[in-house]
Each structure stands twice: as structure tokens, then as C-alpha cells.
Automatic annotation (TrEMBL):
This is MIT domain-containing protein 1 isoform X2. It holds the Pfam family MIT_C. PANTHER family: MIT DOMAIN-CONTAINING PROTEIN 1. InterPro entries: MIT_domain_contain_protein1, MITD1_C, MITD1_C_sf. Gene3D superfamilies: MITD, C-terminal phospholipase D-like domain. Residues 32-174 form the MITD1 C-terminal phospholipase D-like domain. One of its GO terms (biological process) is midbody abscission. One of its GO terms (cellular component) is midbody.
Length: 181
């Protein structure tokens, strides 16, 4: 037990010193990687603001992924007040669906005391999530790493821990470990 406590203390010191980098490789068809499973250890009561950069919050399933991520933030121990989303604008036939979907999410968040700030970029490519407690998570596929469920009544349709994933890599840093150029 003492060894486990010492390891935890050492990891906390490494995180605080900004020397922490964790990489998670999600294999094709792997399960057990819901947003809660990936993010829970980085969310605490000090988290009040989140920045999400993901160019692909456009189609229905991507809007639902973003909504599920927002739900996780609202029900976790964090006291989320503001969510900033930077995404690309759907210039095709889905423009109205994207706009109305994000407005519905904004209104729903407002009903829970959370402000959603939307910004669009035509040049965004990389995906990252930053919490105001210093944690930064980069997911190769952004929030859209889940596969389509086999049917509406299959396991994984509602519980994303049971949903198969596309292969992707998740990199987790603390901002003390990153350098802005």
C-alpha cells in the first residue's frame, strides 16, 4: 500500500512539474473507451471552462458525440460554466442541420447554467480538448472515434463503453509540459 501511495505521489509531482505525457492507443474495434472512461481522471471541481477544437462537429452523429461530451461535463464533479467550441462550418447540404443542432445544444446547456461559445474556422485541422485545470487531450479522430452501432437495439447504442471504436491515438499532456511558439 505504501508503494502505491508513493507512486501516486510521484505521478502527482510529475504532473505538477509538467513532465507528464500519457499516450493511449485505441485499437480498431476496441471497447471501453467512452468519454467518461478517457476523461474522468482529468476532471475535478476546479474545471469550469473547456475548449474543444474539432473540425468535424457537423453531421448528426458528430453533433450527438459533442452532446454526449457536454453531458459528461455537466454531470461530472467539475463546475463547468463555459464550453468553447471551434469547428468548421458545413458548407454543403448539412449547414442548416449543423446550425440548428448546435443552437439546440446551446439552449440545453444554458438551461443547466452553462454557456456555449461557438466559433468557426475554415482552416482548422487538428483536434484538441483543453481544460482550465491545465490538462490538454489530443485525439487523432477528435470526438468522432466511435463506430456506427450495428443496429438501434444493439449493445453500445446507448452505453459508449460498449461501442466499438475506430483506431486512434489519444495524447494527454499538462500545459506546463507544452511550449507555445
Amino acid at each position: 500500500m505504501d508503494r502505491a501511495e508513493n507512486i501516486k505521489k510521484y505521478l502527482d509531482q510529475e504532473k505538477e512539474a509538467g513532465k507528464y505525457h500519457k499516450q493511449i492507443k485505441i485499437e480498431e474495434n476496441a471497447t471501453g473507451f467512452s468519454y467518461e472512461s478517457l476523461f474522468q481522471e482529468y476532471l475535478n471541481e476546479t474545471v469550469t471552462e473547456v475548449w474543444i477544437e474539432d473540425p468535424y462537429i457537423r453531421h448528426t452523429h458528430q453533433l450527438y458525440n459533442f452532446l454526449r461530451f457536454c453531458e459528461m461535463l455537466v454531470k461530472r464533479p467539475c463546475k463547468i460554466k463555459t464550453i468553447h467550441l471551434l469547428t468548421s462550418l458545413d458548407e454543403g447540404s448539412g449547414k442548416e442541420q449543423q446550425s440548428s443542432g448546435l443552437e439546440e445544444i446551446r439552449e440545453s446547456l444554458r438551461n443547466h447554467g452553462v454557456q456555449l461559445e461557438l466559433e468557426y474556422s475554415s482552416v482548422i485541422h487538428d483536434r484538441e480538448i483543453r481544460f482550465n485545470n491545465g490538462w490538454m487531450i489530443k485525439i487523432g479522430r477528435g470526438l468522432d472515434y466511435f463506430k456506427k452501432p450495428q443496429s438501434r437495439f444493439s449493445l453500445g447504442y446507448c452505453d459508449f463503453d460498449l461501442r466499438p471504436c475506430h483506431e486512434t491515438t489519444v495524447d494527454i499532456f499538462h500545459n506546463k509540459h507544452t511550449q507555445k511558439i
